[in-house]
Give the backbone structure.
Amino acid sequence: MTDCFKFGSADADVDWFVIVWGEGGDKVPKMKQHSGAKKRFKVTGKGKVKYKKPGQRHLLTGDSGNQNRKARKPAIVTKSDMKTMKKIMSYSF
């Protein structure tokens, strides 16, 4: 898995379902999108997922101009990681 998918600890189960407790007892578990993924990824019109490449905040003088220019363009999530993206951003597709 690439760096853009490391949310939280590896040991903990990812809780996409949050159980809501109310007056009537247990209700149906609600499916939730990953709040961090909502902020970092956007789904294009064709269903691809794009994100901003890391490493563009500070200490950029050591990088070449080509590196800085290429890092400005958004990156597309690979096909192998799309299964994970569809789980954590279930309502965006």
Notes: The longest strand covers residues 41-43. Residues 3-8+34-92 form a domain with the Factor Xa Inhibitor fold (CATH 4.10.410.60).
